[in-house]
């Protein structure tokens, strides 16, 4: 059975690696079990209380957070508006008044 072409770059040189299909040209990986590639982006980010977060939500910090490379602290109760969800360990990208652009972990915030 021939392997499908890459859904990102349409390369025919895909190969199987355990339970993933991999494209050597663009580096894209997707499940080999027949799930659609659109399902990959459906990552759910939840706050400390289990509420689902979305782009544009407002949140509150639930714990004093040290700012790396600085002696300042983001205090508990700090409100952040218009968040953006990103991939990675720190899954919230936002701007905090008085601090600037920051990346936060969803486990330290709650949805307003």
Gist of the model:
Helices cover 0% and strands 33% of the residues. The chain has 112 residues and is mainly β.
Structure characteristics:
112 residues; mainly beta; three-stranded antiparallel sheet; 33% strand; elongated
Structure overview:
It comes from Paenibacillus woosongensis. Belongs to the YjdM family. Residues 45-111 form the Protein YjdM C-terminal domain. InterPro entries: YjdM, YjdM_C, YjdM_N. Residues 3-31 form the Protein YjdM N-terminal domain. This protein is mainly beta. 0% of the residues lie in helices and 33% in strands. It is built from no helices and 13 strands. The protein has strands at 15-17, 20-22, 29-31, 45-46, 52-53, 59-61, 65-66, 73-74, 79-80, 84-85, 92-96, 100-104, 109-111. The strands form five sheets. Strands 1-2-3 form a three-stranded antiparallel sheet, with no helix packed on it. The chain has a three-stranded antiparallel sheet with strand order 9-6-13, with no helix packed on it. Strands 10-11-12 form a three-stranded antiparallel sheet, with no helix packed on it. Strand 1 and strand 2 (20-22) form a beta hairpin. The protein is elongated and about 55 Å long. It starts with 14 loop residues before the first strand and ends with a strand. The model has no long low-confidence stretch (mean pLDDT 88).
């Amino acid at each position: 059975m021939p392997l499908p072409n890459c859904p990102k770059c349409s390369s025919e040189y895909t190969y199987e690696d355990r339970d993933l299909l991999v494209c050597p040209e663009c580096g894209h990986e997707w499940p080999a079990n027949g799930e659609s590639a659109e399902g990959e982006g459906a990552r759910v980010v939840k706050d400390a209380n289990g509420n689902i977060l979305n782009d544009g939500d407002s949140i509150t910090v639930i714990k004093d957070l040290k700012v790396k490379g600085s002696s300042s602290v983001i205090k508990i109760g700090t409100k952040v508006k218009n968040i953006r969800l990103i991939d990675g360990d720190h899954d919230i990208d936002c701007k905090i008044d008085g601090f600037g652009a920051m990346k936060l972990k969803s486990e330290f915030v709650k949805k307003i």
